[in-house]
Amino acid sequence: MPTFQSKPYRQSKATSAINHTLRRHPFATFGLPFLTIMVIASFGLSTFTQTKYDRADGKVRELDKKEQLQIQKNKKPVDLREEYFRLQSKDHELENWENKRIRRDIAGLDEWNMPLQKK
Asked: DSSP assignment of 43-105, as one string?
């Protein structure tokens, strides 16, 4: 079985200089790769974003003249007096409500869900 060499591993001068530079400038080790990944990812994800918008645009379509005329023809005429009374009736329903307590019979609890006190 071979033994370990007694000589320690020595780096070349070029590698030593690069390591020294990287220790002095941590941006080159952490910041630059991070920013590079962010820029590349934004270009890569832009295709997915574009697909999303293309699908949404595909659901919307323009109406031709015949369809526009058909919609205008089938429109119900608006009567201001009718709309006023319709809105008043909705408001009237909201004002006349009552809060009704519903009785719940749970064994051992009073109406406020507190344990019964023995007298």
From this structure: HHHHHHHHHHHHHHHHH-----HHHHHHHHHTPPPP-HHHHHHHHHHHHHHHHS----PPP--
Tens digit of each residue's pLDDT (9 = 90 or more) over 2-23: 677 677 677 788 888 888 888 9
- Tokens encoding 101: 């307590």
Residue 23's domain comprises 13-92
pLDDT digits (tens, 9 = 90+) for 52-94: 899 888 888 787 888 888 888 888 888 899 988 888 887 777 7
Q: What is the pTM of this model?
A: 0.38
- From CA 71, how far away is CA 89, in angstroms rounded? 29
The span from the CA of 101 to the CA of 110, in Å, is 13
Q: Is residue 59 part of a domain?
A: yes
